[in-house]
Amino acid sequence: MIRIVVNGAGGKMGREVVKAVAADPELELAGAVDPSHKGEDAGILAGTERNGVTVGGSLQTVLEETHPQVVVDFTSPSVIFDNAAAVMEKGLSMVIGTTGLTEKQRTLLQEISSRTGANALIAPNFSLGAVLMMEAAEKISAYLPNAEIIELHHNHKYDAPSGTSRLTAEKMGAARKQEPCEDRTAESIPGARGAVVEGIRIHSVRLPGYVAHQEVLFGGEGEILTIRHDSLDRKSFMPGVVLACKKVLTVPGVTYGLENYL
Ligand code: NAD
User: Fold this and answer.
1) Of the residues 153, 171, 213, 229, which is catalytic?
2) Does residue 212 contact residue 226 with C-beta atoms inside 8 Å?
3) By alpha-carbon position, which residue is closest to atom 15 of ligand 1?
4) Is-above-0.85 flag for pTM?
5) DSSP notation for 184-216
6) Distance of CA 165 to CAs 110, 142, 145, 191, 203, Å?
């Protein structure tokens, strides 16, 4: 049994992770952390039966009391680096779903990993369909270098553009064999053409009703190719999270992207 602490256990993703960990025979929910839900039962909070795991308000205290092997983090971009550094300094491994870690921060976490032996998987998207969508986008980019991304999420999402769209653009940029056409459009209102990552425009939609969705549009001579992925339920992320919890202890260092674990 791998002992897991869920950080952000009261959030939309954290509640699903609590249920997924409890349902897997190889994983054990050792503890749960969420300052907004301190003192509540993690099972009841997740909408299931009482499981006897009381949500703690401090990650540090819960780690000392529960001695986990892996911490799963779905909190917020504003706290993820400090959380991850504190956990990995203790030599504990991390499965990080929280978005917003910069390249520099990922390098700093790799330095901690080299010193302490803690491993980490940082995955902007844990759904298999989204990973395949990124892989397809990367392949197509080698042939159709002109592309834009539209990502659509619920209106409570903390960051824009999404971690998935950034990673998709990075992969597409690296796979491109030709430079895209020059963009000659002048913005009459700044931001009208979206954010730019690796020369690829990313447009972020935030509306109630959406979960997590992404379209990649490729333009060629007289043709358009569009690929789209829709996460309709947060359950779609759980097989990836469970897989990562089982594998993170055996893959050394800091890994970026679930595709490296498949
Ligand atoms: P949410 O707001 O519903 O939940 C976040 C929870 O974290 C809240 O309950 C909050 O109280 C708690 N929290 C905040 N600071 C904390 C701290 N210092 N310690 C412990 N808990 C803390 O958000 P969400 O929709 O569950 O998303 C969380 C993160 O996961 C976001 O960054 C989001 O973009 C990301 N996300 C990733 C994936 C993926 O597949 N990788 C999928 C969906 C969402």
Assistant:
1) 153
2) no
3) 75
4) yes
5) -PPPSSTTTT-EEETTEEEEEEE-TT--EEEEE
6) 23, 17, 16, 17, 9
pLDDT tens-digit series, residues 39-63: 999 999 999 999 999 999 999 999 9
Residue 227: burial class (beta carbons within 10 Å; 0-12, 13-18, 19+): middle
Please tell me the predicted confidence (pLDDT) of residue 73: 98
Model confidence pLDDT, tens digit, residues 250-259:
999 999 999 9
Helix (H, G, I), strand (E, B), or coil: what is residue 241?
helix
Q: Which amino acid is at 132?
A: L
Q: Is the CB of 8 under 6 A from ligand 1?
A: yes
Q: What residue ranges define each of the domains in the chain, with the CATH number in brackets?
A: 2-122+235-261 (3.40.50.720), 128-231 (3.30.360.10)
Query: Residue 126 has what pLDDT?
Result: 96
